[in-house]
């Protein structure tokens, strides 16, 4: 029962954050703070959340990678902070499989968006390739996309793959 409640609690928060991120393109620090408060509560109350070095590997990794992606203007700072704090509240045994699905989801969504942008701007893409204009080519692909819906998609896929709700 506890794994289902944990999953559903995270799902509810992800739905709210994904909706807000999709509508505003921003994730408030309040969501990150909420995750940190929940993490402290889980440390005290839940045996699924021990405070060990292993518990912090994925959150620290997400923060470091997110910082690099923010510097490269690929990911927003709110996305990076939220993702790192999200991994704090995900049970340790779920972190690696969820991370794998998150990477796959990101690649899938990014690939679809790239194909859509190529089809939408086909003649311009061809022109920029012929002119060897990388800056012009990169402008054909638009701006960053909301990442919280991708996280939500990966979380839903995670439930299906591990049969958490069955």
Explain the overall architecture.
By secondary structure, this protein is mostly helical. The chain has one domain (2-162). The protein has 8 helices and no strands. Helix 1 (2-24) packs antiparallel against helix 8 (148-162), helix 2 (29-45) packs parallel to helix 4 and helix 5 (92-120) crosses helix 8 (148-162). The longest helix has 29 residues, at 92-120. The chain is elongated, with a radius of gyration of 18 Å. The relative contact order is 0.16. The mean pLDDT is 88.
- Rg, please? 18 Å
User: Separation of termini?
Assistant: 11 Å
SS strand fraction: under 5%
List the secondary-structure elements in sequence, H or E. Answer: HHHHHHHH
Mean pLDDT comes to 88
Number of helices: 8
User: Which overall shape is indicated by the principal axes computed on the Cα atoms?
Assistant: elongated
Biggest sheet features:
none
Question: Low-confidence parts lasting 5 or more residues at pLDDT below 50?
Answer: none
Number of domains: 1
Proportion of helical residues:
over 70%
Structural class per helix/strand content? Answer: mainly alpha
What is the number of E strands? 0
């Amino acid at each position: 029962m506890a794994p289902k409640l944990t999953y559903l609690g995270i799902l509810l928060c992800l739905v709210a954050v994904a909706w807000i991120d999709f509508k505003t393109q921003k994730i408030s620090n309040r969501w990150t703070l909420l995750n940190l408060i929940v993490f402290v509560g889980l440390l005290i109350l839940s045996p699924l959340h021990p405070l060990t070095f292993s518990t912090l590997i994925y959150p620290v990794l997400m923060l470091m990678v997110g910082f690099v992606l923010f510097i490269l203007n690929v990911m927003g700072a709110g996305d990076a902070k939220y993702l790192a704090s999200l991994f704090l509240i995900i049970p340790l045994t779920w972190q690696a499989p969820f991370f794998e699905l998150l990477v796959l989801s990101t690649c899938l969504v990014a690939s679809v968006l790239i194909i859509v942008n190529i089809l939408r701007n086909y003649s311009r893409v061809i022109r920029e390739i012929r002119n060897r204009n990388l800056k012009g080519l990169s402008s054909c692909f638009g701006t960053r996309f909301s990442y919280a819906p991708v996280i939500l998609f990966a979380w839903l896929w995670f439930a299906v793959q591990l049969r958490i709700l069955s």
